[in-house]
Specification:
Oligomer: single chain
Keywords: Cell membrane, Membrane, Nitrate assimilation, Signal, Transmembrane, Transmembrane helix
Function: Involved in nitrate transport.
Largest sheet: 6 strands, mixed
Distance between the termini: 115 Å
Shape: elongated
InterPro entries: Transptr_NO3_Nar2
Family: Belongs to the NAR2 family.
Organism: Castilleja foliolosa
């Protein structure tokens, strides 16, 4: 009787969690196969310049029809564990509403079982320096996560790549800065020259 009551309580809990939209990452099946350049892993890409080519498909080892509710695939750029340390704003949380692992969207596409789903993404200029991997979520008609796939193993320790953020100043800014500095110096000398002439005129 106690076991029966526990089962009912568990079912009710699952219904409440689903209704509130609190999907747990640990409850998702890894039904998507995801690969991404750069290859081999470990390369460092430059933000604003380099590209990532992502390919995804359904894992055919799962039963046919288990993807019947998939409507959209959302591809995300995610922080590797080493780039999450001491950074609460990138923290991994099982509740996907609170999870901060995958903050950078690459693309969303209608779901297709085909293995020819490919997208080439140019790394945005505002992507911070870090170590990353790529994850795909399968979403239903209400944009709720139903399944996933990613380019790393379960521990997210393999097939990682780095991104180097834009650093330093742009050449055009340096040129503008030099021009303004030169103009300021010339203006200063001109000011002293005019003041000196005025002083001479008054002394006569």
């Amino acid at each position: 009787m106690a076991n029966h009551g526990s089962l009912i309580a568990l079912i009710l809990l699952c219904i409440v969690v689903t209704c509130n939209g609190n999907v747990l990452f640990s409850s998702l099946n890894r039904t998507l196969v995801v690969t991404a350049s750069p290859s081999p892993p470990g390369q460092v890409l430059k933000a604003g310049e380099d590209t990532i080519t992502v390919t995804w498909s359904y894992n055919s080892t799962f039963p046919s029809g288990s993807d019947s509710n998939y409507r959209t695939v959302k591809i995300m750029l995610c922080y590797a564990p080493e780039s999450q340390q001491d950074r609460a704003w990138r923290k991994t949380v099982d509740n996907l509403k609170k999870d901060k692992t995958c903050q950078h969207k690459i693309v969303s596409r209608p779901y297709s079982r085909s293995g020819n789903n490919t997208f080439t993404y140019t790394v945005l200029k505002d992507i911070p320096t870090a170590s990353y991997f790529v994850r795909a979520y399968a979403l239903d008609a209400h944009d709720t996560q139903l399944a996933y796939g990613q380019t790393t193993n379960a521990e997210k320790k393999t097939n990682l790549f780095g991104i180097q953020a834009i650093t330093g100043r742009h050449v055009s800014l340096d040129i503008a800065s030099i021009c303004f500095s030169g103009f300021s110096i010339l203006s200063l000398f001109g000011f002293f020259f005019v003041e000196k002439r005025k002083a001479k005129a008054l002394s006569k």
